[in-house]
UniProtKB/TrEMBL annotation:
This is Cytochrome d ubiquinol oxidase subunit II. Keywords: Cell membrane, Electron transport, Heme, Iron, Membrane, Metal-binding, Transmembrane, Transmembrane helix, Transport. Belongs to the cytochrome ubiquinol oxidase subunit 2 family. It comes from Pseudoclavibacter caeni. It holds the Pfam family Cyt_bd_oxida_II. NCBIfam families: cydB. InterPro entries: Cyt-d_oxidase_su2. The keyword Heme applies. It is a multi-pass membrane protein. It comes from the Bacteria. The keyword Membrane applies.
């Protein structure tokens, strides 16, 4: 295995981790108006991700930094082409983070209502736009290779409307619903009382819709980018999603959350393998103009020395990060009970 291939999969694993972890954060935020009917219940829901949301969000920073260092041409072309969409994601993430920290700074119900709305919007918008972005990467963008003084430069020739094509919008709707379902399973696993009951009910209804939409997107992907690997990973994603919805029906919260997490893993790997198995070469950003204008593992990667240095750094740092994150989830593994929130409210 070459270093280019190794780092292609490392970047993929980092994005898988981000979508699994921040994915349920997005889902918890989107579930707020559906499972919480008063301030105590809203605090109960928000507290389920209170200790971990900011740590989950750092995965996208690490993934983006790794993409920049390992595949600078991929990074620059993608981020310049999807600049407006990525800025909207960034603004939404900032809005959501500020809302988590500021909603409790004032006892006014109007104050809290505004920030609760920001949490919902700041969760739903990235969940939608990340799916649009990844679907466009897989499906190809209007990129033109232009010869410069120091080599080829890849120029995006579309606009924001170019990104909002039917396949990409279906991909965005799929991630929106999948993250929503993933987050609802997390709420059911981490709460008790009426909030948990509503999360179970919402999970049942939402799960069925998610299965239909996700199956449509995966089927479209298989037809457009057929390979045995893509078919196998798509089927695994479908089985995990059905299993997660079924586990929610029988109130096996831990299993339901695990299965939806695995759904995200296999769904992202499906799209990643579409790129890796692309013919005649491993394309990281296909061009709708043809292979000659596409970004591949070869023309998008950094030098061998850079990739070698990154491999040593990653081998040391990644296990430490995983151990720390695992320890954090273990410390905050207990349910957030309504009685605990009520006691804090009375004490205040």
């Amino acid at each position: 295995m070459t270093l280019e291939i190794l780092w292609f999969f490392i970047v993929g694993v980092l994005f898988v981790g981000y979508f699994v972890l921040d994915g349920f954060d997005f889902g918890v935020g989107m579930s707020l108006p559906f499972v919480a009917k008063n301030d105590v219940e809203r605090r109960q829901v928000i507290n389920t991700i209170g200790p971990v949301w900011d740590m989950n969000e750092t995965w996208v920073i690490v993934a983006g930094a790794s993409l920049f260092a390992a595949f600078p041409e991929w990074y620059s072309t993608l981020f310049s082409g999807a600049y407006l969409a990525l800025v909207l994601i960034l603004l939404a993430l900032i809005l959501r983070g500020v809302s988590f920290e500021y909603r409790h700074q004032n006892k006014s119900s109007r104050w809290k209502a505004w920030f609760d709305t920001f949490i919902v919007v700041g969760s739903a918008l990235p969940a939608l736009l990340w799916g649009v972005a990844v679907a466009n990467i897989v499906n190809g963008l209007p990129i033109r290779a232009e010869q410069g003084v120091i080599g080829s430069a890849f120029v995006f020739e579309g606009s924001l409307l170019t990104l909002l094509n039917p396949y990409a919008l279906l991909g965005g709707l799929t991630t929106l619903l999948l993250f929503f379902t993933h987050g609802v399973q997390f709420v059911a696993m981490k709460t008790d009382g009426p909030v948990r009951d509503r999360a179970h009910l919402l999970g049942r209804r939402l799960g069925l819709i998610t299965i239909v939409v996700a199956a449509s997107f995966l089927l479209w992907t298989i037809i457009a980018h057929f390979s045995v690997t893509v078919v196998v990973l798509s089927l695994l994603a479908a089985v995990m999603l059905i299993a997660g919805v079924a586990a929610n029906w029988v109130q096996r919260d831990g299993l339901a959350f695990t299965f939806t997490a695995l759904t995200v893993v296999f769904a992202v790997l499906t799209l990643w393998m579409v790129l890796f198995t692309s013919y005649p070469t491993h394309m990281v950003l296909p061009s709708t103009y043809g292979v000659a204008d596409s970004l591949t593992l070869t023309n998008a990667s950094s030098s061998a020395n850079t990739l070698s240095f990154m491999t040593w750094v990653g081998a040391i740092a990644l296990p430490i990060v995983l151990l720390y994150q695992g320890w954090t989830f273990w410390v905050f593994r207990k349910r957030v009970r309504r009685s605990d929130i009520e006691q804090v409210t009375v004490a205040a």
